[in-house]
Amino acid sequence: MNLDSVYTELIMEHNKNSRNKHSLENADLSEHGHNPSCGDDITLELKFDGDIISEAAFTGSGCAISQASTSIMIDLIKGKSIEKALELVETFIAMIKKEIKDQQELRKLKDAMALKNISNMPARVKCAVLSWHTLKEALNERK
Amino acid sequence: MMLKQESAVKKENLGSQYKKDFPILNQQINGKSLVYFDNAATTQKPEVVLDAVDNYNRNINANPHRGAHTLSVRATEAYENARAKVKDFINAERAEEVIFTRNTTESLNLLANSMEALVEEGDEILISLLEHHSNILPWQQLAERKNLKLKYLYPDQNYRISLAELKDKLTDKTKIFSISQMSNVSGTINPIKEMAEIAHQKNALVVVDGAQGAPHLKTNVRDLNVDFYAFSGHKMLGPMGIGVLYGKKDLLEKLPPFLRGGGMIEYVKEQDSTYAPLPEKFEAGTPNVEGAVGLQAAIEYLEEIGLDKIKEHELELTKYALEKMKQLDFVEIAGPLDLEDRGGIISFNIKDIHSHDLATIVDSEGIAIRSGHHCAQPLMKFYGLNSTGRVSFYLYNTREEVDRFLESLEKVREVFGYES
C-alpha cells in the first residue's frame, strides 16, 4: 500500500485548512450525514439561487479522508445546477466503485479525482463517499 | 539489576514462543511481518484449535441429539464434552448451566428477552456507561417493552466505577444489574465479586458481560457469585459463532425459552408445546458443534499455559507500552494510567489526527490496530471522544512488536506533516 497515493498533498491540505468548513447563515437546506460504524459525522449546508447551488459549506468531525472529500466536493458543486451536481455525485460514486472504464469521464470531477485511489482501500470507501451520499439525499429533497 | 534483565528476556521469549503455535501470525502484511494488536475484537487460532475443528469435520460431523446412528452419537459426545470443559473452565456447578449461543451479544439478548418474565412495570435495570453496545441495547429494548427505568453507573476521571456509585444507584426497585468484567475501551477491570455482593443485598439479579474478561482473567462464577455470565469463543482463541451463557440452574429454569424450534421441545401439539429441560430449552435449532469443539481445544490450550501466566505477560506489555506512550507528548491515553485492575487494552489518540487515519498508516507498517468508537458510544460521548485508536494484547504479542508499534506512531505524525 502506497500511503502517498492516498494521503496526497491536496487531501492533506483540504483536511487541515478547509475554507469550506464553517456553518452557513440562513442556509436553505441542511443535511446530516453519519457513518454509524466509525463515527464520521458531517452536516452539509446549502444555499440556492433558483436551481443553482449558490453557496455550500460543512461542519462536523471525522477522518482526513471524509473531511477532505467533503471539502473537495463543495468546491466542485458550487455554482452548479442541482441536476449537474447529482450527475457529478453519480460519477464520483461510480469512480470509487471502479465502475468507470473510460478515464476521460473522470475529468469532470476535477480535484475529486484525487480520491480515486480510495477505491483500492475497501475499509475507507465509506469515508470518501459519505458527503456525496449526503449531498444526494439533500438535493433529492430539494427537487 | 542482572536479575531484572534476565526476567525481561524471559518474558520476551514467552510471546515469541507462543506465536509459533499460530500459523496466521507468520505472514507479511504490506511487506512487513504482521503485528496483531486487535485482540479485543477477535483473537487468532492456534494449530490445536484448527486441528480439532478439522478433525471434527473430517471424521465426526453429524446432527447431535437427533440420530441413532454412530456419527450422531459421536457428534453428541463431542458437543457435550465441550460443554463439560466450559463448565470446569468457569467452575459452574452443573453442565446444564452452560448454554451454547453464537456469542456474548446473543447471550445478552437471550437474557434480556427471557428476563421479561421476571420484571414488572416501574422496575429498574442498572448498567454502566463503560458498557459495549451489546450490554446496552438489549436492556434498552426490555425497558421500553415493559416500561422500566434504565439507569447508568458513571465512571470517574480514571475510567473506574466506584462501589459508592453502585450503592448510590441501587434501589429496592433494581431487578437487574448488568456490568462488564473488563471494558473493551479502557481496559478497566470491575470488582465483580464486591459488586455482586452489594447488588444481591438489594435482591437484584447480577449479569456479567465477560467478553473481555473470560479470555484474560481466571473466572470462577461460583466464587464471584454472579447469576449470569456471558462470553464469546472467538475472543479466546476459539472459532467465531460459538459463545456461552452461564446461568444458575434455578434461575434458568424460571426463564421462558428465547428461540423456539427443533431440539428444544418436549411435546409439541397443534396449539401449544412443552419444552425440553436445560440446557436444550435454550438451544433451538442445530447447534454449532464444530465451534464448541474448537472452543474446547482453545480452553485446553489456554489452561495448559495458565491464564495467570498469560495475564502477567499481557500486563508486562501494557506497562511497557503505557510508559513509552506517556513520554510522547502527541499521544493522549483514554483509560487508567496505572496498572491496577487493568487489562491489556490501551485506547489512545494522536493529537490532531483522526484514529482512522492512524489505523491506516499503522497498517501500512503491518500492524493491526482498531479505530473508531468501539461499539461504546455513550462512553465516548461521556469523555468527549469522537473516536480512539486501540491496541489490545494477548499471549502471542511481544515487546519487540510494541517497539514497532511505537515507531509507527512517529510515522503517523510524519505523514501528516508534524514534527514528532
Outline the fold blueprint.
The complex is a heterodimer of chains A (143) and B (420).
Chain A: H1 9-16, E1 29-34, E2 41-49, E3 52-61, H2 64-77, H3 82-96, H4 125-142
Antiparallel strand pairs in A: 1-2, 2-3
Chain B: H1 2-19, E1 28-29, E2 32-33, E3 35-36, H2 47-60, H3 70-90, E4 98-101, H4 104-114, E5 124-128, H5 137-146, E6 149-153, H6 163-169, E7 174-180, H7 192-201, E8 205-209, H8 221-224, E9 228-232, E10 243-247, H9 249-254, E11 265-268, E12 273-275, H10 289-305, H11 307-327, E13 331-333, E14 345-350, H12 355-363, E15 367-368, E16 370-372, H13 377-382, E17 388-392, H14 399-415
Helix pairs in contact in B: 2-10, 3-10, 4-5, 11-14, 12-14
What keyword list fits this structure?
heterodimer, A: 143 residues, alpha+beta, Sufe protein. Chain: A, 3-stranded antiparallel beta sheet, 4 helices, 3 strands, 38% helix, B: 420 residues, alpha/beta, Aspartate Aminotransferase, domain 1, Aspartate Aminotransferase, domain 2, 2 domains, 7-stranded mixed beta sheet, 4-stranded antiparallel beta sheet, 14 helices, 41% helix, globular, disordered N terminus
How does this structure look, described?
The complex is a heterodimer of chains A (about 140) and B (about 425). By secondary structure, chain A is an alpha+beta fold. Chain A has helices at about 10-15, 65-75, 80-95, 125-140, and strands at about 30-35, 40-50, 50-60. In chain A, strands 1-2-3 form a 3-stranded antiparallel beta sheet, covered by helices on one side. In chain A, about 40% of the residues are buried. With about 425 residues, chain B is an alpha/beta fold. Helices cover about 40% and strands about 15% of the residues of chain B. Chain B has 14 helices and 17 strands. In chain B, the strands form 5 sheets. Chain B has a 7-stranded mixed beta sheet with strand order 4-10-9-8-7-5-6, sandwiched between helices. Chain B has a 4-stranded antiparallel beta sheet with strand order 13-14-17-16, with helices on one face. The model of chain B is unreliable at about 1-5 (pLDDT under 50). The interface of A and B includes residues 37, 121, 123 and 127 of A.
